[in-house]
Design goal:
- By secondary structure, the protein is of the alpha/beta class.
- The chain is built from eleven helices and eleven strands.
- 45% of the residues are buried.
């Protein structure tokens, strides 16, 4: 979807934003007649080269990926957090009552180093358990759980709601946003999805950026307040392979938001420290204060 003139008040230049073709893009769908929205599937192959080459655009990427990129591109800036956690742990075991019941059990999780993997490993470490992690592709894991072939899985929305709707033996065991808040005494959940760009680009277009993010905040509020309409947009605009009624149920659990970087700075740093303490290779150095745009 490409439209070159940004028409929001104060906007006089073309704006491009790269977003995963997934739930975090829902607030962008009603803006695609005013901005260039380019959807991607793989952040490593499609987006990292663009950031390294300093393409002047906005990018929605995992926050831990942004932190690691900052070490290579020190003018990269975290503008805000767009999702505070859409992950949950599902199980078909009706006897589990606490985290310790997972010790030594197989838990199916998305690819190594992904947000589902890293957040899970942090929570497992904090709860003092060592499940056997079996890595795979999240949509395939969802299908295996629907078919009753696996017992435990960590999935993002809307796959969580899809599995719950298709297999009545599956139950929501742990909602990661709630568990994170309890463990780390935070309020916003897991700041796992970020929007980033470059210091110079933001400085040159500060007025236009303010206009865009005001519009974006309104769209986030609209999606959260109108899940039925937003779900239909998601099926058409994103081609999500999930029925609209399932997306509608999942939106309240998606944690869609817009929190400016400085407002959520401490919770982002808590997130980065937890990741680093779990696996130093996945993050590297924790970014300094210059990383936070505003």
């Amino acid at each position: 979807m490409k439209f070159w003139m940004f028409l929001l008040p104060g906007m006089v230049f073309s704006l491009t934003i790269y977003s995963p073709k997934a739930a975090p893009a829902l607030p962008l769908l009603r803006l695609t007649n005013q901005i260039t929205v380019i959807f991607y599937q793989d952040v490593t192959t499609e987006i990292l080269p663009k950031i390294v080459q300093h393409e002047e655009a906005l990018f929605i990427i995992p926050a831990n990926v942004a932190a690691k990129l900052y070490q290579r591109t020190p003018d990269l800036r975290l503008i805000g957090i767009t999702s505070t956690g859409m992950l949950a742990l599902l199980t078909t075991n009706q006897t589990y009552t606490n985290w310790q019941d997972l010790a030594g059990k197989q838990v199916h999780i998305g690819s190594p180093g992904s947000s589902p993997d890293m957040v899970s490993r942090v929570l497992f470490r904090m709860k003092g358990i060592k499940p056997e992690i079996v890595y795979g592709d999240s949509p395939q894991i969802a299908q295996l759980m629907i078919a009753g072939k696996i017992e435990n899985a960590v999935l993002p929305e809307p796959l969580v709601s899809l599995v719950l709707s298709k297999n009545p033996q599956v139950r929501l065991f742990k909602v990661y946003r709630e568990e994170w808040n309890q463990i780390f005494s935070t309020r916003s959940g897991v700041p796992q999805t970020a929007i980033v760009s470059f210091a110079g680009f933001l400085s040159r277009h500060q007025r236009e950026m303010v206009s865009f993010f005001q519009a974006y905040q309104k769209e986030v509020a609209w999606v959260n307040a109108n899940p039925a309409e937003a779900s239909k947009l998601g099926v058409v605009g994103l081609g999500l392979q999930v029925p609209p009624e399932v997306i509608e149920k999942s939106i309240p659990r998606m944690g869609l938001t817009y929190l400016p970087a400085r407002m959520i700075r401490q919770e982002v740093l808590t997130y980065f420290k937890a990741l680093k303490d779990t696996d130093e290779q996945v993050l590297g150095n924790i970014p300094d204060d210059n990383f936070f745009a505003w």
